[in-house]
Amino acid sequence: MTKFYTLAMMFTASFAFAQAGAPAPYYNGFDFTQTGTALKTALAQKITSTHTKTLSYDGAEQAIKIIDLDPADATNTNVLLLYGFSNSICPSSQADDNDHRRRSKNSDGGGATCEWNREHTYAKSLGTPDLGTSGPGADAHHLRAADVQRNGDRGSEKFTAGSGTSHDVTSSTWYPGDEWKGDVARMMMYMYLRYGNRCLPKNVGVGTPVASDANMIDLFLQWNAEDPVSQYEDNRNTYLGNANNQYGQGNRNPFIDNPYLATMIWGGPAAENRWPSLSTHEFNPLSAVAVYPNPASNHKINIDSDIVLDEIQLININGQIVQEIKNPASQSNTYTLENLPSGFYFLKLASQNQTATKKVIVN
């Protein structure tokens, strides 16, 4: 979400941006030296194991009255509306009713005029299967307050690239708006890690699958980098991450805590790194490829890779190429090299102008 700074926001900055220096205690003991699939798996396990309180759909609506409050409103009476952009508040002319960016927190109810409703940012019908209104369908990390009509305009359309305020791009695609696209991206990433195949990013957005993960698309990585985290996102993440709060789930959205974690997992444009102590090396998706068994047995090794490999070379310690396979064939994302002579080797992998070298031993 684009950051809008006001005097009221400055007073609460020290609280809201507590994650801007180092990881929260929530991550104590977590191994941030991991990248790629290993980091993705570890974060998924973290946010799943700490999700200790499951909200009902009604409970999530009550949570929204707290977590979606406008940080710029010192009276704590208005919630921000996803996709909205007009700063006027109801009552107003009906012509721009569904453009509103904020509304009274007590105006929930789903009416057509001047009311908001809790809405699935990950359109529930795009889940596999439909997310419903329990479990993933009631996870407050992706439920937001939204104007009834504007969210109705979005319906179950897929997210796509655009600019300006929220609008239909085609009859089947939706741009969430410059202010909200980063929020959307980080929620889609959270839902993917938390619920796996039930919430695949490729099913809710239009874009190109990334090399290291066919389920993630470049659109969300771009939005995550272009639209930094706001105080609003920090506040809701902090509340939901505390299970002692009445509507706290116990788990956090790691991509709000640090958008750069997405870069470390999937690559793409470098997102904001909110933890200066975290390495900002350029991510090579081939570094996450697994080679096993190592040492090899039966003169055979397997290479597990979600990335399509363009070339495999097996090089001995004298620098001689023992095997070279261009455009190798895989079975269920596994490449197999057989009949290997015993020895110590360097296994060089290439894909899309990137390379990685692994050390292997063949007994």
UniProtKB/TrEMBL annotation:
Which ranges of the sequence are coiled-coil? none
Key word Signal present in the record?
A: yes
User: What are the residue boundaries of the Secretion system C-terminal sorting domain, all occurrences included?
Assistant: 291-362
Where in the sequence is the signal peptide annotated?
1-18
Compositional bias annotation for Polar residues:
162-171
Q: Which Pfam families match?
A: Endonuclease_1 (PF04231), Por_Secre_tail (PF18962)
What would you give as a GO molecular function for this chain, any one?
nuclease activity
NCBIfam families in the record, alphabetically?
Answer: Por_Secre_tail (TIGR04183)
Describe the family membership recorded for this protein in Swiss-Prot or TrEMBL: Belongs to the EndA/NucM nuclease family.
Name-wise, this protein is T9SS type A sorting domain-containing protein
Give the originating organism: Flavobacterium microcysteis
